[in-house]
C-alpha cells in the first residue's frame, strides 16, 4: 500500500492512495474539501490558513482512518477533526479584522505606509473555493452572505467555540444535537452559546450586501474601463458619495468620494496604466489588478472586491498581496503584448 499525503502548508495537495483504509475511501474524504474550506475560512478569516487547516484535517483523518468505526457519518467525523484543528490554530493567533474595524477613517495626507502583518487581517477567498455547487438560488445567496467580509470579520469577535456553534447552526444548518455531539457537550450548552453568539453579532450590525443587478453589471464594465484608462473623473463618478477604500496590509482607510479622488491622483497614482482581470471573491465581484512592471509587462498588485449600493460603488476592498493571485486562478505576470480577457465578470 502507498499513500501520498502532503503535509500542511501545501495548498494544492489532494488525498490520494492506492488502497482504502478501514471503511473510509480517500475520494470520500476529498469530496468534502470545498465545504470544509468554507467552514475553516469562516472560523479563521484567512484563505491561506483555511487551506492549511483543511489539509491538516485530511492528513489527520487519513492517519486515523483505520480506527474509524462508522458510528457517525464521514462528513461529521471530518467536521469534528476540522473543528479541533481550527480551535488549535486559534489558540495561538490574534483576532483578525478589517481596516474599518480598527478606528475612524483617515485623510489622504495622513497616509504613512504603516502596515500590519497579514496575520492580523481578514483576507479574501475565491468564491469557487468555498461556495456550494448548488442549483438552489436561495441556498447560494445565503452561502454568499456567509462569506462576506463584514460577516467573517464579525465572526472573529466570537470566542472560538461560539464561532463554531454559530457557523454550524446558522450557516450549515446543523441540528443542536449534532453540534453537541461534535463538540462533546450538551444541547443546552450549544443553545446557550448560540444565543450569546447571536447577541454579539447583532451588536456588530452586519448589514447584508446587495446582489449584483444588470445595471450594476454595466457599472463593473464602466469601472474596468475607467480604471484601466485611469480616467479619474469617470472613475469618481461611479462612486457613492460616502464610498470606502481599504487596502490591507495598510492600516489607513478612506471614506468619501473627494478623499478617494485625492488618493487616486496622489499616493494611488502608481496604479496608472494598470490592467484588470475579473474575479469573484467573498460573494463579491471584482478584479485582480496588475501594475506596470517598468519593462512593458504587468506585475500582480492586489485583489479588488467591490460592493454596490444602488447604482454606485459603495466600497473598494483592495488586498495588496501578490500571493493571492494563484489562489484566485490568476497569472503571476502579464508579459508585454500578452492578451488578457477584458469583459467584466458575468452577473450571478
TrEMBL record:
Keywords: Sigma factor, Transcription, Transcription regulation. One of its GO terms (molecular function) is DNA binding. Pfam families: Sigma70_r2, Sigma70_r4_2, SnoaL_2. One of its GO terms (biological process) is DNA-templated transcription initiation. Residues 150-201 form the RNA polymerase sigma factor 70 region 4 type domain. CDD domains: Sigma70_r4 (cd06171). Residues 221-314 form the SnoaL-like domain. Residues 30-96 form the RNA polymerase sigma-70 region domain. InterPro entries: NTF2-like_dom_sf, RNA_pol_sigma-70-like, RNA_pol_sigma-70_dom, RNA_pol_sigma-G_actinobac, RNA_pol_sigma70_r2, RNA_pol_sigma70_r4_t2, RNA_pol_sigma_r2, RNA_pol_sigma_r3/r4-like. Belongs to the sigma-70 factor family. ECF subfamily. PANTHER family: ECF RNA POLYMERASE SIGMA FACTOR SIGG, RNA POLYMERASE ECF-TYPE SIGMA FACTO. Interacts transiently with the RNA polymerase catalytic core formed by RpoA, RpoB, RpoC and RpoZ (2 alpha, 1 beta, 1 beta' and 1 omega subunit) to form the RNA polymerase holoenzyme that can initiate transcription. This is Sigma-70 family RNA polymerase sigma factor. It comes from Pseudonocardia broussonetiae.
Amino acid at each position: 500500500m502507498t499513500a501520498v499525503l502532503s503535509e500542511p502548508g501545501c495548498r494544492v495537495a489532494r488525498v490520494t492512495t492506492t488502497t482504502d483504509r478501514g471503511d473510509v475511501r480517500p475520494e470520500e474524504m476529498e469530496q468534502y474539501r470545498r465545504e470544509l474550506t468554507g467552514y475553516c475560512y469562516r472560523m479563521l478569516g484567512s484563505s491561506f490558513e483555511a487551506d492549511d487547516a483543511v489539509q491538516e484535517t485530511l492528513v489527520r483523518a487519513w492517519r486515523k482512518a483505520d480506527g474509524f468505526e462508522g458510528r457517525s457519518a464521514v462528513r461529521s467525523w471530518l467536521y469534528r477533526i476540522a473543528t479541533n484543528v481550527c480551535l488549535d490554530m486559534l489558540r495561538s493567533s490574534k483576532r483578525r479584522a478589517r481596516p474599518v474595524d480598527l478606528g475612524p477613517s483617515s485623510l489622504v495626507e495622513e497616509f504613512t505606509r504603516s502596515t500590519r502583518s497579514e496575520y492580523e487581517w481578514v483576507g479574501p477567498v475565491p468564491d469557487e473555493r468555498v461556495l456550494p455547487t448548488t442549483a438552489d438560488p436561495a441556498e447560494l445567496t445565503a452561502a454568499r452572505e456567509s462569506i462576506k467580509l463584514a460577516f467573517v470579520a464579525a465572526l472573529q469577535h466570537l470566542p472560538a467555540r461560539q464561532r463554531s456553534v454559530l457557523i454550524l447552526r446558522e450557516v450549515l444548518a446543523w441540528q443542536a444535537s449534532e453540534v453537541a455531539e461534535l463538540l462533546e457537550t450538551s444541547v443546552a450548552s450549544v443553545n446557550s452559546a448560540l444565543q450569546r453568539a447571536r447577541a454579539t453579532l447583532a451588536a456588530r450590525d452586519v448589514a447584508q450586501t446587495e446582489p449584483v443587478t444588470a445595471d450594476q453589471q454595466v457599472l463593473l464594465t464602466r469601472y474596468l474601463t475607467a480604471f484601466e484608462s485611469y480616467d479619474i473623473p469617470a472613475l469618481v463618478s461611479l462612486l457613492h458619495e460616502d464610498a470606502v477604500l481599504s487596502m490591507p496590509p495598510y492600516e489607513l482607510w478612506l471614506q468619501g468620494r473627494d478623499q478617494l479622488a485625492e488618493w487616486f491622483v496622489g499616493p494611488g497614482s502608481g496604479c496608472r496604466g494598470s490592467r484588470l482581470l475579473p474575479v469573484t471573491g467573498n460573494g463579491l465581484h471584482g478584479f485582480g489588478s496588475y501594475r506596470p512592471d517598468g519593462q512593458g509587462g504587468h506585475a500582480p498588485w492586489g485583489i479588488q472586491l467591490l460592493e454596490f449600493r444602488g447604482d454606485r460603488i459603495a466600497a473598494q476592498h483592495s488586498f495588496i498581496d501578490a500571493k493571492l493571485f494563484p489562489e484566485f486562478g490568476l497569472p503571476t505576470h502579464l508579459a508585454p503584448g500578452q492578451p488578457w480577457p477584458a469583459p467584466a465578470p458575468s452577473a450571478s
